[in-house]
Specification:
Residues 41-74, 81-115, 200-228 form the 4Fe-4S ferredoxin-type domain. With 244 residues, this protein is of the alpha+beta class. It has helices at residues 2-35, 47-53, 59-63, 99-103, 142-149, 156-166, 175-178, 213-217, 231-236, and strands at 69-71, 83-85, 122-126, 189-194, 199-204, 223-227. The chain is 35% helix and 11% strand.
């Protein structure tokens, strides 16, 4: 009799805890979603459909040659297990064949995205102009480059990024524009004269797809990425996300 009572207690206690967790998740999830808008891989459909379609298989993460894709944990809020990119750690390098899209079994990453020009991840924002060393006459230092060595480098493609960066040491910084992987990159970002400071500043152009390479490689973290917004959204219509 005592054993039966104990089992019933455990059973109903467990159900009660699960009920509280479920209810809490239902209440909190809209806020978690709003406060943690993530930069999704190339081809990601709109966020609500993406969360519904993604089966959290991780295949996009496995095939990414730059190790750009991570899987969200509980600290990212809604969508645990879904893929995202943290550009300050490792951006998307817009692989020609977009292997992450090809690997997606559910079209959470739309298979109509077949090349870099089809990608619409977000848009770059030159947010911290006071940090930009390109605007001044300051040269790129070894320290500026070394921070990128802390990112994962496991193959030839990743090592080539470092090799290119090393060419900028002791030179004026134009890294964000020069290293942009978008085909004909001047359509996405370019350096323009900043006569007030005797240097050059980045100008984001209409073909920017928000891959995040400019943000990752910027020596002073002067550029950030607005996920899920287009150039027109941000620069023409003034639309903003809840968090930047």
């Amino acid at each position: 009799m005592k054993t039966t009572n104990r089992r019933e207690f455990i059973q109903y206690s467990t159900l009660g805890i699960l009920g509280l967790l479920t209810a809490g998740g239902a209440v909190l999830s809209p806020y978690l979603k709003a406060d943690n808008l993530l930069l999704r891989p190339p081809g990601a459909v709109n966020e609500n459909d993406f969360l519904a379609l993604c089966i959290k298989c991780g295949q996009c993460e496995q095939v990414c040659p730059y190790h750009s894709i991570e899987l969200a944990d509980i600290t990212q809020g809604l969508g645990v297990g879904t893929p995202f990119i943290e550009p300050l750690k490792r951006a998307c390098y817009l692989c020609t064949a977009l292997p992450c899209v090809l690997a997606c079994p559910t079209s959470a990453l739309n298979h109509l995205a077949e090349k870099p020009e089809d990608v619409k991840m977000g848009v770059a924002v030159f947010k911290y102009s006071n940090k930009c060393i390109g605007i001044s006459t300051e040269k790129v230092s070894r320290k500026n480059i070394n921070k990128i060595y802390e990112h994962p480098h496991k193959n030839n493609l990743e090592n080539k990024v470092l090799e290119k960066l090393e060419n900028y040491e002791d030179k004026q910084c134009t890294i964000c524009a020069d290293m942009c992987p978008f085909p004909n990159s001047i359509l996405a970002i370019e350096m323009i004269d900043d006569s007030a400071n005797n240097g050059k500043r980045p100008k984001i152009n209409s073909s920017c797809v928000g891959c995040g390479v400019c943000a990752e490689l910027c020596p002073s973290s002067a550029i950030v990425i607005e996920p899920r917004l287009s150039y027109e959204d941000y620069y023409v219509n003034g639309k903003r996300n809840n968090k930047l």
